[in-house]
Specification:
237 residues; alpha+beta; 2 domains; three-stranded antiparallel beta sheet; 18 strands; elongated
């Protein structure tokens, strides 16, 4: 197989991966707390042999997340929370602590604050938040302080990652290098942060990637035809 086809195959694979990222962004344009993803590609060299020139190839090197603030949507939900500015909520999952911007919370049957998947929301002290069962009014301040019937009971934990963020699911992130409390966080009760994806821009990007893929496919077909003609010419000699 020619170097041109090898290189084109690598490019086509990268475009397919980019298309998957763009498609996932569009699918989550209405997902609470979702952060737009971008595929980052890296170049590397492949050596076919000592007597031949090396071939430049590309591959998926990682992901970059656009952490810009999504639009705040007022819901009026007592346990709906949105972080205004920097910071993440901390959830205790079966896989360990996970960070999220999706603040659609509720009370469990044990009166602990949980998300839609049953994961416990952790307080500033690192423990699950418990709301007194007899509480009729729950107020959450901008600093995360939780008051039940006028009495302070806990504080919502808000943190910032110490290093790289890795996406686990659409709205869950892990922080392999740990995280630290973020005291300057501003919370809004009765609101949720929407996705920061722009569907129009993502559809435009999808069209761009599709056209690039089609151009690459046409180039591979031409190269394949050129090689076929060369083989036929050699046979006829």
């Amino acid at each position: 197989m020619s170097n041109a086809i090898y290189t084109s195959l690598g490019r086509q694979q990268g475009l397919m991966q980019e298309m998957q990222v763009v498609s996932n962004n569009i699918a989550n344009s209405n997902t609470t707390g979702y952060k737009m993803d971008r595929a980052i590609f890296a170049e590397f060299l492949v050596s076919p042999g000592q007597s031949q020139d090396s071939v430049s190839m590309g591959g998926l090197g990682g992901h970059a997340f656009r952490m810009a603030q999504g639009e705040l949507k007022i819901t009026g939900g007592q346990f709906d929370l949105a972080v205004q500015g920097e910071g993440f909520f901390v959830l205790q999952t079966a896989q360990g602590p996970r960070l999220t911007r999706a603040g659609h919370f509720q009370l469990s049957s044990e009166s602990t604050l949980i998300d839609a998947f049953g994961n416990s929301v952790l307080g500033a002290g690192g423990n699950p938040i418990t709301i007194p069962p007899e509480a009729s009014q729950v107020a959450i301040g901008t600093d995360g302080s939780i008051s039940a019937n006028g009495q302070l009971v806990d504080r919502v934990g808000v943190v910032t990652p110490q290093g790289q963020l890795l996406r686990d699911t659409n709205t869950f992130f892990s922080a392999p290098e740990g995280y630290a409390p973020f005291e300057e966080a501003i919370l809004v009760q009765g609101a949720l942060e929407g996705s920061n994806v722009s569907p129009i821009l993502e559809v435009a990007r999808m069209i761009e990637v599709q056209r690039a893929y089609e151009a690459g496919q046409a180039m591979m077909e031409r190269e394949d035809g050129r090689i076929s003609q060369l083989i036929t010419s050699l046979r006829e000699r």
